[in-house]
Amino acid sequence: MVDIKCRIIEKPPRPVINQTTTKVAYFNGNGPDSYLCGNCNFILAKNVTLDQIQMKFRTPDGLGLVVTCPECKSYNELGPDVG
Questions:
Q1: Which residue spans within the chain are E strands per DSSP?
Q2: Which of 34, 45, 48, 80 could form a disulfide with 29 if both were Cys (CB 3.0 to 4.6 A apart)?
């Protein structure tokens, strides 16, 4: 299993996935990797592959998926060049 820190970015001009009531990983899969917040190490995606994330949330412009960390509120990009 590999822990991969996401890239912290400024608020992007594209959609961002947010959690409003819970503090849990956005994605749970059956892969070998976990994606962590680049600021506080909160687990954003657990036991996944990048392909699983990209298949579920396609970004047609080729940019990475952006999620807000439920713990520290940082914007994290999960993309092919993270890791």
A1: 2-5, 7-9, 27-28, 33-36, 43-48, 65-68, 75-78
A2: 48
